[in-house]
Write a structure and sequence with these properties.
- Among the domains are: 128 residues, Adenine-n6-DNA-methyltransferase TaqI, Chain A, domain 2; 134 residues, DNA methylase specificity domains (Adenine-n6-DNA-methyltransferase TaqI, Chain A, domain 2, Alpha-Beta Complex), CATH 3.90.220.20.
- Helix content is 30%, strand content 24%.
- With 414 residues, the protein is of the alpha+beta class.
- The protein is built from seven helices and 26 strands.
- It is elongated, with a radius of gyration of 28 Å.
- Strands 4-11-8-9 form a four-stranded antiparallel β-sheet, with helices on one face. The protein has a four-stranded mixed β-sheet with strand order 6-5-10-7, with no helix packed on it. Strands 16-25-22-23 form a four-stranded antiparallel β-sheet, covered by helices on one side.
């Protein structure tokens, strides 16, 4: 059955809502909710006792604790940075049962004459930039929250809307969930492929020998293992400021575990930078578990959080790059980091790590093979990610059109 609009509309007077069905009312959030913020209590990380009770913050569950404050159906609304949440991230969410809430989420008890799920959807459509003004840190306070306009259909229509959305959204979310799992499987496949080929090579019939390195295991007879520094040297060419004529690469410009350089039009950099040449390998020493590794596609400068490796003439830079990008290498580097909030790896520990070193002809063969196979995997992942984005956009649009009355779902909700 085709979804049709209502027969008559009126202007709501609210830009993000637009026109609404003629028989619907427009009120404020305070008419449908009772604020329980006075009961919320933050617990510092040091004082949290691990348990099974969810501990909620602005965007959902922060931790699990062994006690609770609330034990009923409630609506949570993020207090910090509401207008700048990512496009698909929900500002409001429903919780049921025992929970503890910190002071970064507003707690609302919803009146019996309004469906809590519909109210959640409406709050996730709101343009919060209209209600947060004059603050250096964006924060949605109680006074601003209670004045947010809310559309009120009849309770029967509320039930129809929620029933319809529950069915439609669950199908969309299931599809997105399956696609997300598929992406993870493809990433695991790519990781396993790199790990295997970097230690076993492409010739399945090759005679093997013990490498003498536990995490590497057996390697083909014609290979050797050596410290990274004997294949590549660290460049320490540093400038106090980025030259105008050279492009810049920061950690944020490298896509994790892919070696892909993202678009970047940054002109000025205030901090010191490292010089690199085309073909050098850039390795992220800050939070190395993110695997920010790339072969430089041009001459330029980079953040000092990227180590610049210059590969010697006896080795192939794309092969060494694949070594540094492998999950095993990343895991070991990550285990050597120092610092809690901003973990960094010591460059001189990294250059003393052992890697496999086949003859250069095999290095090129392996690097070319991995580049070809990984590009296929990455292309598939990109297609799935694009599909997920479209599904998220469709879900967002569908919810907006239904909860603001652009679609009449009364006859299709059953």
């Amino acid at each position: 059955m085709k979804i049709k609009p209502y027969l008559e509309y009126k202007d709501s007077g609210v830009k993000w809502i637009g026109k609404i069905p003629k028989k619907w009312d427009l009120k404020r959030l305070k008419h449908f909710t009772f604020n329980l913020d006075g009961k919320r209590i933050p617990i510092s990380a040091e004082n949290r006792v691990l348990g099974n009770i969810p501990y909620y913050g602005a965007t959902g569950i922060v931790d699990y604790v062994d006690d609770y404050i609330f034990d009923e159906e409630l609506l949570m609304v993020g207090e910090d940075g509401a207008p700048f949440f990512e496009f698909y991230k929900d500002v409001a969410f429903v919780v049921r049962g025992k929970c503890w809430v910190n002071n970064h989420a507003h707690i609302l008890k919803v009146s019996k004459n309004f469906d809590i799920n519909l109210l959640m959807h409406l709050l996730n459509q709101a343009d919060y930039s209209l209600y947060i003004k004059g603050s250096t840190r964006d924060k949605l306070n109680q006074d601003q929250l209670k004045e947010i306009p809310i559309i009120e259909p009849s309770y029967a229509e509320q039930t129809s809307i929620v029933t319809f959305l529950n069915k439609k959204v669950s199908v969309i979310d299931k599809t997105i969930g399956n696609d997300t799992k598929l992406i993870e499987l493809l990433k695991e496949k790519r990781t396993a492929l790199i790990n295997h080929v970097m230690t076993k090579g492409l010739d399945q019939e090759a005679n093997m020998k013990d490498s003498g390195v536990k995490w590497i295991g057996e390697i083909p007879e014609g290979w050797r293992v050596d410290k990274l520094k004997y294949t590549s040297t660290i460049s320490n060419d540093t400038l106090n400021k980025k030259p105008i004529n050279l492009p810049y690469i920061g950690l944020e410009h490298i896509k994790s575990f892919t070696g892909v350089l993202l678009e970047n039009d940054l002109e000025e950099v205030d901090s010191s930078v490292n010089l690199y040449k085309k073909g050098d390998i850039l390795f992220g020493k800050l939070r190395p578990y993110l695997a920010k590794v790339i072969v430089a596609p041009f001459d330029g400068v980079c953040t000092t959080e990227l180590i610049v490796f210059k590969v010697n003439n006896d080795n192939y830079n794309h092969f060494i790059f694949q070594q540094l990008l492998s999950q095993r290498f990343i895991d070991i580097v990550n285990s050597m980091t120092y610092g809690v909030k901003m973990p960094r790896a010591n460059p001189y520990q990294i250059e003393n790590m052992m890697i496999t070193v086949p003859p250069i002809i095999e290095q090129k063969q392996i690097a070319d093979y991995l580049e070809n196979e990984n590009s296929k995997i990455d292309e598939t992942i990109q297609k799935i990610e694009n599909k997920i984005k479209l599904m998220e956009e469709y879900k967002k649009s569908l919810i907006h059109h239904v909860v603001t009355g652009k679609f009449d779902v009364r006859e299709v909700a059953v």
